[in-house]
Amino acid sequence: MLIIAHAGLPEYWEFAELAANNPHVYLDTTMVGTSYMEQVAPIPPGYVDTVAGLSHKVVFGTDFPSIPYSYRPDTGTRKLGTRKPMGEECPLAYAQGTPAA
């Protein structure tokens, strides 16, 4: 099993393709879509739709409490989580539906 930290940012597309084409490769959500990372490596147009098709390959990730920005409840995986591109069950999947080895 290989879990790609930070969804492979800034090479979002390349790592999404790697996860899509390999059964035991997953993307983690650490820092993806945060206001901090959107300044450094913004999510490219169309990427959220691509990841929606890979929802079974996305696992929750966090660097908290050692993050390079102040924590606020509105930071985190905003584009991949609270907009629910992967369906209404997305936040629940983060908590209990992550892949097992």
TrEMBL record:
Hydrolase listed as a keyword: yes
Protein's UniProt name: TIM-barrel fold metal-dependent hydrolase
Chain ranges of the Amidohydrolase-related domain: 2-76
Stored InterPro entries: Amidohydro-rel, Metal_Hydrolase
Organism per entry: Pseudarthrobacter enclensis
Pfam families per UniProt: Amidohydro_2
GO MF annotation terms: hydrolase activity
Keywords: Hydrolase
